[in-house]
Amino acid sequence: MSYRLTKIYTRTGDDGKTNLGTKDRFSKNSPRIEALGTLDELNCALGVVLAQPGIPGDMHKLFTLIQHDLFNLGAELCPPYQPIVTDDKIQELEVQIDKWNEELEPLTEFVLPRGDLATAHCHMARAICRRAERRIVPLLDEDNFRITVLKYINRLSDWLFVAARILGKSHKQQEVLWDHEKR
Prior knowledge:
mainly alpha, Hypothetical Protein Ta1238, Chain: A
Protein backbone atom coordinates (compact mmCIF):
# COMPACT_ATOMS: atom_id res chain seq x y z
CA MET A 1 0.00 0.00 0.00
CA SER A 2 1.38 3.41 -0.90
CA TYR A 3 0.83 6.34 1.40
CA ARG A 4 -0.79 9.44 -0.12
CA LEU A 5 -0.10 11.79 2.75
CA THR A 6 3.41 11.12 3.88
CA LYS A 7 4.19 14.72 4.75
CA ILE A 8 1.46 16.89 6.22
CA TYR A 9 3.16 20.24 5.87
CA THR A 10 4.77 21.29 2.62
CA ARG A 11 5.20 25.05 3.07
CA THR A 12 3.98 25.53 -0.51
CA GLY A 13 0.86 27.32 0.72
CA ASP A 14 2.74 29.91 2.75
CA ASP A 15 2.34 32.44 -0.08
CA GLY A 16 -1.48 32.33 0.01
CA LYS A 17 -1.78 29.95 -2.91
CA THR A 18 -2.41 26.23 -3.19
CA ASN A 19 -2.54 23.57 -5.85
CA LEU A 20 -5.23 21.01 -6.43
CA GLY A 21 -3.22 18.12 -7.76
CA THR A 22 -1.75 19.89 -10.77
CA LYS A 23 0.98 22.47 -11.21
CA ASP A 24 -1.68 25.20 -11.44
CA ARG A 25 -1.74 27.48 -8.41
CA PHE A 26 -4.98 28.88 -6.98
CA SER A 27 -5.35 31.79 -4.59
CA LYS A 28 -6.71 30.52 -1.30
CA ASN A 29 -9.58 33.01 -1.59
CA SER A 30 -10.57 31.98 -5.13
CA PRO A 31 -14.18 30.83 -5.62
CA ARG A 32 -13.04 27.24 -6.18
CA ILE A 33 -11.00 27.11 -2.96
CA GLU A 34 -13.85 28.80 -1.06
CA ALA A 35 -16.24 26.12 -2.33
CA LEU A 36 -13.83 23.31 -1.42
CA GLY A 37 -13.25 24.79 2.04
CA THR A 38 -16.97 25.02 2.71
CA LEU A 39 -17.45 21.40 1.61
CA ASP A 40 -14.72 20.46 4.09
CA GLU A 41 -16.48 22.44 6.82
CA LEU A 42 -19.76 20.68 5.95
CA ASN A 43 -18.06 17.30 6.16
CA CYS A 44 -16.71 18.23 9.60
CA ALA A 45 -20.19 19.32 10.70
CA LEU A 46 -21.52 15.90 9.69
CA GLY A 47 -18.78 14.36 11.79
CA VAL A 48 -20.03 16.39 14.76
CA VAL A 49 -23.55 15.05 14.17
CA LEU A 50 -22.16 11.52 14.11
CA ALA A 51 -20.25 12.15 17.34
CA GLN A 52 -23.51 12.71 19.21
CA PRO A 53 -25.05 9.84 21.15
CA GLY A 54 -28.20 8.14 19.94
CA ILE A 55 -27.78 8.36 16.17
CA PRO A 56 -29.79 5.41 14.83
CA GLY A 57 -27.59 2.86 13.03
CA ASP A 58 -29.27 3.32 9.64
CA MET A 59 -28.83 7.09 9.86
CA HIS A 60 -25.22 6.69 10.98
CA LYS A 61 -24.56 4.66 7.83
CA LEU A 62 -26.29 7.26 5.61
CA PHE A 63 -24.36 10.16 7.15
CA THR A 64 -21.11 8.25 6.60
CA LEU A 65 -21.99 7.63 2.94
CA ILE A 66 -22.69 11.35 2.54
CA GLN A 67 -19.28 12.15 4.02
CA HIS A 68 -17.71 9.97 1.33
CA ASP A 69 -19.87 11.69 -1.31
CA LEU A 70 -18.62 15.08 -0.11
CA PHE A 71 -15.01 14.00 -0.59
CA ASN A 72 -15.95 12.81 -4.08
CA LEU A 73 -17.68 16.12 -4.76
CA GLY A 74 -14.56 17.98 -3.70
CA ALA A 75 -12.45 15.77 -5.94
CA GLU A 76 -14.75 16.55 -8.84
CA LEU A 77 -14.12 20.28 -8.31
CA CYS A 78 -10.35 19.73 -8.62
CA PRO A 79 -8.30 19.27 -11.79
CA PRO A 80 -8.59 17.14 -13.90
CA TYR A 81 -12.34 17.70 -13.22
CA GLN A 82 -13.48 14.12 -13.66
CA PRO A 83 -17.22 13.50 -13.23
CA ILE A 84 -17.74 11.55 -10.03
CA VAL A 85 -21.09 12.56 -8.49
CA THR A 86 -23.93 11.06 -10.51
CA ASP A 87 -27.63 11.69 -10.89
CA ASP A 88 -28.10 8.38 -9.05
CA LYS A 89 -26.72 10.01 -5.90
CA ILE A 90 -29.30 12.80 -6.19
CA GLN A 91 -32.03 10.20 -6.70
CA GLU A 92 -30.88 8.35 -3.56
CA LEU A 93 -31.22 11.55 -1.52
CA GLU A 94 -34.71 12.17 -2.91
CA VAL A 95 -35.86 8.61 -2.17
CA GLN A 96 -34.64 8.91 1.43
CA ILE A 97 -36.27 12.34 1.86
CA ASP A 98 -39.60 10.93 0.63
CA LYS A 99 -39.29 7.88 2.90
CA TRP A 100 -38.56 10.02 5.96
CA ASN A 101 -41.30 12.51 5.13
CA GLU A 102 -43.85 9.69 5.35
CA GLU A 103 -42.89 9.35 9.04
CA LEU A 104 -43.22 13.07 9.82
CA GLU A 105 -46.11 15.40 10.44
CA PRO A 106 -46.66 17.80 7.53
CA LEU A 107 -45.32 21.27 8.22
CA THR A 108 -47.55 24.32 8.48
CA GLU A 109 -44.69 26.73 9.27
CA PHE A 110 -40.92 26.90 9.32
CA VAL A 111 -39.15 24.90 12.03
CA LEU A 112 -36.86 26.74 14.42
CA PRO A 113 -33.42 25.09 14.32
CA ARG A 114 -32.99 23.55 17.76
CA GLY A 115 -33.54 20.33 19.67
CA ASP A 116 -31.01 18.07 21.33
CA LEU A 117 -27.35 18.33 20.27
CA ALA A 118 -27.63 15.86 17.39
CA THR A 119 -30.67 17.62 15.96
CA ALA A 120 -29.25 21.12 16.42
CA HIS A 121 -25.94 20.09 14.85
CA CYS A 122 -27.82 18.60 11.91
CA HIS A 123 -29.58 21.95 11.43
CA MET A 124 -26.17 23.65 11.56
CA ALA A 125 -24.87 21.23 8.92
CA ARG A 126 -27.87 22.16 6.75
CA ALA A 127 -26.99 25.85 7.03
CA ILE A 128 -23.35 25.12 6.12
CA CYS A 129 -24.62 23.07 3.17
CA ARG A 130 -26.60 26.10 1.97
CA ARG A 131 -23.43 28.18 2.22
CA ALA A 132 -21.55 25.54 0.22
CA GLU A 133 -24.22 25.87 -2.43
CA ARG A 134 -23.72 29.66 -2.52
CA ARG A 135 -19.95 29.11 -2.84
CA ILE A 136 -20.41 26.64 -5.70
CA VAL A 137 -22.71 28.91 -7.76
CA PRO A 138 -19.84 31.17 -8.96
CA LEU A 139 -18.29 28.10 -10.60
CA LEU A 140 -21.32 27.67 -12.90
CA ASP A 141 -19.78 29.65 -15.73
CA GLU A 142 -16.60 27.58 -15.86
CA ASP A 143 -16.25 25.18 -18.78
CA ASN A 144 -15.48 22.18 -16.58
CA PHE A 145 -18.43 22.61 -14.21
CA ARG A 146 -21.23 20.04 -14.18
CA ILE A 147 -24.63 21.17 -12.92
CA THR A 148 -24.98 17.78 -11.17
CA VAL A 149 -22.63 19.10 -8.48
CA LEU A 150 -24.97 21.99 -7.68
CA LYS A 151 -28.06 19.77 -7.83
CA TYR A 152 -26.48 17.31 -5.39
CA ILE A 153 -25.58 19.95 -2.83
CA ASN A 154 -29.02 21.56 -3.15
CA ARG A 155 -30.73 18.25 -2.53
CA LEU A 156 -28.36 17.47 0.32
CA SER A 157 -29.51 20.58 2.19
CA ASP A 158 -33.10 19.31 1.88
CA TRP A 159 -31.95 15.88 3.06
CA LEU A 160 -30.25 17.44 6.10
CA PHE A 161 -33.39 19.39 6.99
CA VAL A 162 -35.51 16.25 6.94
CA ALA A 163 -32.75 14.29 8.72
CA ALA A 164 -32.81 16.90 11.52
CA ARG A 165 -36.57 16.43 11.84
CA ILE A 166 -36.17 12.64 11.94
CA LEU A 167 -33.42 12.89 14.56
CA GLY A 168 -35.60 15.17 16.66
CA LYS A 169 -38.50 12.75 16.40
CA SER A 170 -36.32 9.73 17.26
CA HIS A 171 -35.00 11.62 20.31
CA LYS A 172 -38.53 12.67 21.31
CA GLN A 173 -37.82 16.35 20.75
CA GLN A 174 -40.76 18.69 20.28
CA GLU A 175 -40.44 20.78 17.12
CA VAL A 176 -40.92 24.50 17.61
CA LEU A 177 -42.60 26.14 14.65
CA TRP A 178 -41.99 29.73 13.70
CA ASP A 179 -44.71 32.02 14.97
CA HIS A 180 -44.49 34.91 12.54
CA GLU A 181 -46.79 37.00 14.73
CA LYS A 182 -44.75 36.51 17.91
CA ARG A 183 -42.36 39.24 18.89
